[in-house]
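Continued from yesterday's entry.
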Amino acid sequence: MMNHWLLASFLGGATLLGGFAAAATAGVTVVQNDRSFQPESIEIAKGTVVHFANEDEFIHQIYVKSPTMNFDSAEQVPGDNIDIEFDEAGRFAVRCHIHPKMHLEVTVK
């Protein structure tokens, strides 16, 4: 029979490992600033959530249009955040309807 100290140590370790695993799969952040996506390209695993943070002084509207994925957000005011899950492998061009020169390439493996 395991004593209480060993059980508490084991459970504490499991919690730490579980927290680490959750942090490792939490996603990727892309910042919108100076009318651009930063970074301009990312490579992620299938199922990753990309967190878009509007740290710009302008409204943005994110969209993705491809044969395997379509996404079109509402207007995103400064300070707003949008999460998009990329659950298909491929390359995706992410754009802003309001600022067509904004471009992000997402490669999903």
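--- second protein ---
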Amino acid sequence: MKLSSVNSIAEKLAEYLIKIGASGDLGVKDVYVNNFSPLSDLPESFIEINGNGGLGQLTTERGIMEYNLVLSLHVEQLPSGARNAIRENFLLSRFEGIFNSTLEIGNFHYTLDVKNSVFSGSDLIAGYTSKVLNINVKIY
């Protein structure tokens, strides 16, 4: 794998989520990858997928690599400032089953790191609640 293709790891996952309907009318409005999210005029809910750390080699042989992504789901808070738990739970339900086993997209093998949830709360983006999860990726 060429270092220049590391951005495609997040892009492939985003394409897959869009394809299966995690975004769109009933899902999140946008999926942003590789730190290319707008600073203003954010939609009522959106996903960010970004790299988290460096590209590592699993073996002494070339070709098997690992990488980590963070998948962040952001939901706009209610006008009262309370979290929109109904919308949060609905959007999280769109992800049910995706990571029950390894998700294979080409040479990329994505697994949810259930032991290391990164964040759950309302301090990352003003006016939004966030769920941030680690995704481990093995590249063959």
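The helical segments are 7-19, 85-93. The mean pLDDT is 84. Will compare against the first tomorrow.
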